[in-house]
Amino acid sequence: MLLCLATTVKSDEQGVFFEVEENRFLFAENTIWNGKVDSLMSCSQMCGRQDDCKGANVWTDHGTCKLLSKEQARKPRQLLKREGCIYFEKVASFEKSQTPGATQSSAVPSCQTLLNQSPPFSSGVYWINPNGGSQANAFKAYCDMETHGGGWTLVWSYTFTMYNSFKASANAIIPRPNWSVRPEVDVPISTTPPRNETDYNAMNFSLWKQLGRQVLIKTNINNWLVCHQGTGSLVDWQEGSVSCQIVKRVADKCTGTPAPTMFTPSPSHGYGPMFYSTRYFDSTYYYFDGYTGNHWPAHDPCGQDRENNLKNVADPHGNIFIR
User: Fold this and answer.
1) Which of 40, 103, 155, 264 has the most CB atoms within 10 Å of its CB?
2) Model confidence over 10-27: pLDDT tens digits?
3) Confidence (pTM)
4) What CATH number labels 2-95?
């Protein structure tokens, strides 16, 4: 489970954010410092005071802290498992006089970084910098700090070309992200981060994986899903299994239907990604069809690839968030 730790270090005027992963450690032959500490916070403060410290391993059972250099620290997905160990990595620093994410100079890596702060952050637009490095690369993005634990970064807001004739072949989602699909897909592409849930735009798809691996699908015509990657992954554009749960039932049909279990970035025709259960087109919950010449963008709470979505909804739309 990925957490966030904020600590005041270096001086009374500066703070540092760390991403924390429990029961993980990074193997490193050489360390900046290795010794005893009385808490995780003490270890993080030591790391924060040293510019050449990028992260640390903490063994909570015997209070050992190992500080790691920028060259040794790696991304959390490359860590090894070990019970009782905590790995944390420095991800951002900010001036205490500035609210994290309030300005370009105080940009944070993602909306998830704003979790567990006091006072809590509310949903809204914040500066983020998923790629790290220079804050000149930071940009504004919308953070949902309420749904299913909060910390979600909005990467795509879309609507439909023909909502009132939902199953018409000319109906499609609009706009679409710049992901890889067949060349005949004809809805406009967006690479502009959306600022709210009806600002119909999409963040550059290459940045999605920098924000996390959990996917939240929200829409006002179908049930909301939270999906964890398995062998399949939307952000990695990989077909396979996913672990999804319905976090809010919006539709008035099939209230006992479970969530989808599979993801594919490219069904047989390749007009957009799909969440389904067993086979294409007869168990589809979400199909993000971006082609106005064939098929239609299924949003089916029954998982039947039919027109079971809510009808007569004002401002029909959908959103993808990443955490």
Assistant:
1) 155
2) 434 456 778 888 888 888
3) 0.75
4) 3.50.4.10
